[in-house]
Amino acid sequence: MKTPKELKVKPIKNGTVIDHITSNRALSVLKILELPNEKTTVTVAMNVLSSQMGSKDIVKIEGRELAPKEVDKIALIAPSATINIIRDYEIVEKSKVHLLDKVKDILKCPNPNCITNTDEPVQIKFFVTGKKPVVLRCYYCERIMEEDEIEAQF
Ligand SMILES: [Zn+2]
Fold it and tell me: How far does the centroid of ligand 1 lie from the alpha carbon of residue 112, in Å?
C-alpha cells in the first residue's frame, strides 16, 4: 500500500481528499458537502502545518467524489484547495479549485435593498474581483462580499 506523503493522513481506498483548505474552514466545507451523514466516513484535520500556506485544513471522504457545483462552492471559501480523487489507494486525479469571473445563483446579496432581495425576477450574480482571498461584487448594487461573509451563507 502506497502512502502519499504530502497528504499527511492515512490513505483511503476510494474517495476524495480535499487538501490545502484555508485553515479553520474544514467544517464549512463539510457543510457544503452535506456531511457528515451516517454512511460516509469522513476524516478532518485542522490547522495542519503547510509549507505553502502556514497552516491548512484537510478533509478526507471515503467512497465519494464531488459534483462540479460542490467544487464551485468550495472555491469560494477555500480558494487554494486541491481536490485529489483516490481510486484503489492511488491519486488518479489532482486538480485545484477554480473560480470563474462570475458567480451565479450560489449566494445571496447581503444588501437588503438590493433588487435581488425584492420580488423582481433577476438572476443573482456577483463579479469575482479578487481570488486569493475571494472578493465578490454584486452585479446590481455593487455591494462587496468577502470570504467570512460568504462562509456564513453555507
Ligand atoms: Zn446586491
Answer: 8
